[in-house]
Amino acid sequence: MLVAKIFTFPKAGVLDPQGSAIKPVISNLGFTNVKDIQTGKYFEVKIDACDVAEARKTVQELCSKVLVNPVVEDYEFEILEA
Amino acid sequence: MRCAVIQFAGSSGDGDCCHVFKNILGQSADYVFHKETFKPADFDIVVLPGGASHGDYLRPGALSAHTKVMESVKEAANSGKLILGIGNGFQILLEAGLLPGTMLINKDIKFYADEVLVKVENTATPFTNLYKKDEVIRLILSCKYGSYFADAKTIEQLKSQNKIVLTYCGFGKNGDEEDPVASMENIAAIANQEGNILGLMPHPERCAEEILGNTDGLRMFQSILQYFEGGKTL
């Protein structure tokens, strides 16, 4: 069994109001070295695949069909042993 | 006119839409559950109602767009049947790829629920033929993800093909509240290239009879009736 850890985040230039709302709070807390913050989503998917290549293909199809909205989101993932 | 109103898990505008078609317009309206399919030939118009279907989990409309019934909705859309997506129904049409673009969260991250002033940009559609061009009407907006977004090419296509059907021109009862949604080009409704699919964010079914204090939405449903009675030309 393999586990895919998938991160989605807004494409560059797409407004992220949640990130914008969190940023001033962080500044108020004194984290002056935090220059920007962006929100996204995290999915952990268990995949029954023979090898990493097969799991990668499944993750890419899963992301392009439903998990990611290609109009406004990009994604990255890594595949690990469960 | 035979209307199918789709019931997704969590739909809340289904009853109101059915009520308008049956009790106000005196037409036939049937519910179709999202786990079912239907024959496109059995209906003239398919309504995807509002209400956070499937809890808006993942993204608004994303899970509903992959339900069983959407196979029939796509078949109906491709065969030229009228498809009307209201609020979350619009988001489902976007996620299903039946209309271009997507909805982002409102710029102030709040759920907005109030009247809006909307300008009718295109009256040559089956959904707006009883309105006047550039007429400003009052509708009800009720959404958290109401900020229409599309790439520059899509926006250019919508404009050049005259597929932007309604635009926001004022928020709140007097139209003087700050814009909470920040839709690109102030888009409140768009149609597909063929003109048989309309997605709109405001709710016409919530202002379609006197008892609700506003009847500006009724003409959208009457327009659909007029379209069928008048000989069905897009």
TrEMBL record, chain A:
Keywords: ATP-binding, Cytoplasm, Ligase, Nucleotide-binding, Purine biosynthesis. It catalyses: N(2)-formyl-N(1)-(5-phospho-beta-D-ribosyl)glycinamide + L-glutamine + ATP + H2O = 2-formamido-N(1)-(5-O-phospho-beta-D-ribosyl)acetamidine + L-glutamate + ADP + phosphate + H(+). Gene3D superfamilies: Phosphoribosylformylglycinamidine synthase subunit PurS (3.30.1280.10). Its main location: cytoplasm. Pathway: Purine metabolism; IMP biosynthesis via de novo pathway; 5-amino-1-(5-phospho-D-ribosyl)imidazole from N(2)-formyl-N(1)-(5-phospho-D-ribosyl)glycinamide: step 1/2. Part of the FGAM synthase complex composed of 1 PurL, 1 PurQ and 2 PurS subunits. This is Phosphoribosylformylglycinamidine synthase subunit PurS. It comes from Tepidanaerobacter syntrophicus.
TrEMBL record, chain B:
InterPro entries: Class_I_gatase-like, PRibForGlyAmidine_synth_PurQ. The keyword Ribosomal protein does not apply. Part of the FGAM synthase complex composed of 1 PurL, 1 PurQ and 2 PurS subunits. GO terms for cellular component: cytoplasm. This is Phosphoribosylformylglycinamidine synthase subunit PurQ. The active site is at H203, E205. One of its GO terms (molecular function) is glutaminase activity. One of its GO terms (biological process) is 'de novo' IMP biosynthetic process. Pfam families: GATase_5 (PF13507). It comes from Tepidanaerobacter syntrophicus. Pathway: Purine metabolism; IMP biosynthesis via de novo pathway; 5-amino-1-(5-phospho-D-ribosyl)imidazole from N(2)-formyl-N(1)-(5-phospho-D-ribosyl)glycinamide: step 1/2.
